[in-house]
């Protein structure tokens, strides 16, 4: 009807509102940021959704939240005044179980996520491990292949408040096998919440696991194709379906991909300022219509005043002016939350020591590197880090102060995209050893594809140099 016009329904005439209401038969709505925030219902949202039902509209609650099973979502909605049944709930926890059941999956799942996904898996007869705390131990690097469950055939990443370094390590190690499926419930960077405190979302963990595993996840939640394919089984008429959401890059993008009408509410993730920027720059996807909050459809004025039990802005140190991310075996959800909250201020510096995806180690056990944590913080803070380690410019500039002769300087490393890249950028000679991250197979692929940077010379390990150099005069 309005076709990405970003029309403000608050300013519409009665006839325009009536025309809008008559233009759809099915309503799909996001939950967090649209209907409620945390455990606080947004004023008027229940009345608006129940009004749609009174008009004869078919209702689906489509949420990327994976922390609950469908019956729990339905119960939560009912307690807040919404008319809702389990069959109308489409959550990513349910989608994950539905997907694996549909492909005849019979192995175990390693779950970096909440018990909501675990219960949905259990309901379809799929075994899983990994739910709950997995704290770091002093000998965490001593993990062996025998510590991995050989029956695991899939890794699912959802929201996990117990996220820890051992969980990243296990997920990446299972994914070292190409036969292991990699599924993510969603890639939402953060949860909707007003104020300066940032609550990192599932996308933070997905990016971390993708970084250290070198794999790309199959994402089942909005705006990806699997949700669309699932909904197609209901025989919806796209032109007469309305998608309501609080985030342009997931909810509205999903609606546009499916050919639905779209309504953006500004009570969640996407702010009025962000929408104005998107509209000014004509950056898709843009919503058809907009409201400050869903309850405004029925003209119910009431400011949102949720009573949060979680971290408050007063818990942040006002003297912090920089966030530095390095390797941290004690990584946790509160640390991600604090880092992203400090970085909500544009004046706060964001520094990373390096972006190495993993530590060098033989065998199938993967030891995630600093880059795993950097990508996670970048995801939930929506900031890019200033990286001081190899191969970035800061190292090069520092080395220039040492008055080295680039043509007579040798850079030795085990990794093409950091060590050799640094050498090439600086004009050094380069020697790659195959005793660490880059394997002979990796190098052969880079060489066959002529993918830079390539080293000048190669050795299986640095010690081999002594076997080809004369011990008397140090020459070949």
What is the typical, i.e. mean, pLDDT? 90
Low-confidence segments, given as residue ranges, are 300-309
Helix percent band: 25-40%
Q: How many individual β-strands?
A: 22
Question: How does the major sheet shape up?
Answer: 7 strands, parallel
Biggest β-sheet: strands ordered side by side in the sheet: 1-14-13-12-2-5-6
DSSP strand (E) fraction?
15-25%
Kindly report how far apart the N and C termini lie. 78 Å
- Our count of helices gives 16
What structural class results from the helix and strand content?
alpha/beta
Task: Write down the Rg.
Answer: 26 Å
Shape: globular
Protein architecture, described:
The protein has 476 residues and is α/β, with parallel strands linked by helices. It has a seven-stranded parallel β-sheet with strand order 1-14-13-12-2-5-6, sandwiched between helices. A five-stranded parallel β-sheet has the order 8-7-9-10-11, sandwiched between helices. It is globular and about 90 Å long. It starts with 6 loop residues before the first strand and ends in an 8-residue tail after the last helix. This is Phosphoglycolate phosphatase. InterPro entries: HAD-like_sf, HAD-SF_hydro_IIA, HAD_sf, PGP_euk. Keywords: Hydrolase.
């Amino acid at each position: 009807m309005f076709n990405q016009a970003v029309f403000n329904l608050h300013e519409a005439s009665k006839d325009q509102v009536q025309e809008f209401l008559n233009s759809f038969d099915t309503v799909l709505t996001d939950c967090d940021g649209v209907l409620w925030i945390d455990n606080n219902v947004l004023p008027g949202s229940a009345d608006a959704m129940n009004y749609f039902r009174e008009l004869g509209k078919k209702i689906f609650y489509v949420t990327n939240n994976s922390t609950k099973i469908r019956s729990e979502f339905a119960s939560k909605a009912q307690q807040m005044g919404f008319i809702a049944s389990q069959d109308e709930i489409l959550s990513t926890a349910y989608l994950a179980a539905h997907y694996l059941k549909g492909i005849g999956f019979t192995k175990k799942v390693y779950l970096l996520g909440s018990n909501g996904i675990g219960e949905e898996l259990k309901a379809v007869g799929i075994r899983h491990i990994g739910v709950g705390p997995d704290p770091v131990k002093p000998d965490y690097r001593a993990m062996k292949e025998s510590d991995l469950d050989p029956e695991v055939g899939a890794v699912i990443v959802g929201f996990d408040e117990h996220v820890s370094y051992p969980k990243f390590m296990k997920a990446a190690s299972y994914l070292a096998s190409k036969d292991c499926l990699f599924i993510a419930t969603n890639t939402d960077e953060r949860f909707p919440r007003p104020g300066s405190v940032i609550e990192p979302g599932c996308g933070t963990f997905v990016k971390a696991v993708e970084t250290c595993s070198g794999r790309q996840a199959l994402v089942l939640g909005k705006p990806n194709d699997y949700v669309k394919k699932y909904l197609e089984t209901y025989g919806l008429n796209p032109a007469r379906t309305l998608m309501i959401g609080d985030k342009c890059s997931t909810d509205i993008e999903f609606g546009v991909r499916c050919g639905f009408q779209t309504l953006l509410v500004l009570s969640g993730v996407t702010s009025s300022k962000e929408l104005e920027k998107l509209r000014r720059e004509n950056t898709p996807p843009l919503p058809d219509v907009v409201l400050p909050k869903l309850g405004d459809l029925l003209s119910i004025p009431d400011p949102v005043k949720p009573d949060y039990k979680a971290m408050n802005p007063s818990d942040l140190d006002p003297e912090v002016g920089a966030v530095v991310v390095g390797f941290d075996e004690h990584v946790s959800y509160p640390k991600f939350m604090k880092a992203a909250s400090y970085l909500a201020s544009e004046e706060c510096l964001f520094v990373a020591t390096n972006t190495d995806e993993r530590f060098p180690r033989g065998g199938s056990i993967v030891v995630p590197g600093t880059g795993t944590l950097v990508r996670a913080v970048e995801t939930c803070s929506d900031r890019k880090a200033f990286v001081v380690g190899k191969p970035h410019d800061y190292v090069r500039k520092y080395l220039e102060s040492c008055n080295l002769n680039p043509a007579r300087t040798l850079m030795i490393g085990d990794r093409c995209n950091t060590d050799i890249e640094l050498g090439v950028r600086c004009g050094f000679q380069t020697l790659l050893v195959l005793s660490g991250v880059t394997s002979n197979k990796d190098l052969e692929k880079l060489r066959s594809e002529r993918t830079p940077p390539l080293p000048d010379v190669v050795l299986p390990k640095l010690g081999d140099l002594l076997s080809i150099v004369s011990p008397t005069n140090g020459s070949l």
